[in-house]
Amino acid sequence: MSELNNRLEALRILMDEEDEMGPSGRWAEAEAMALLLAAWRAGRVSFKDEGGSSDLSFAKIWQEHEDWSYDVFGGPDVKGPIGPIKHLGKEQKELLENPDDPSEYADCMFLIMDAARRQGLGLQGLLKAMADKQRILWARDYRADPNNPDEPVEHRRS
Fold first, then answer.
1. What region holds the dATP/dGTP diphosphohydrolase MazZ domain (predicted)?
2. Phi, psi of 80 (to 5 degrees)
């Protein structure tokens, strides 16, 4: 709380200086900044989103997609992971045809998320598997062919 008070005091000092906004405009701006800071600290606003929305988080999207998927297609007791994995193959082809379309990446992500959930991996389980796999990837030796920039790069097998 003292950090917030220090920031507000600094804003009060700045507000005493004259500029084109006038005193009431500067105070309104300072109050808006203070409210935004308080909302950020309470976790109601994120500044990490690149798309302009302040209500994005992977966990929220994961949960909303789970709710929708289970409502539309049934839970894991009705539908397992194989259907979404097969569908992913179709979406991969669309992504290859349209690599500039962000919605094609989203389609693939949703199918991966759905398959993982239906296999019993929650968000934390999937993130742990990703972190574990990332360490394995970092330990491997890769050699890209500069003459084939659009071809996959496989790790060297010993």
1. 63-143
2. -90, -165
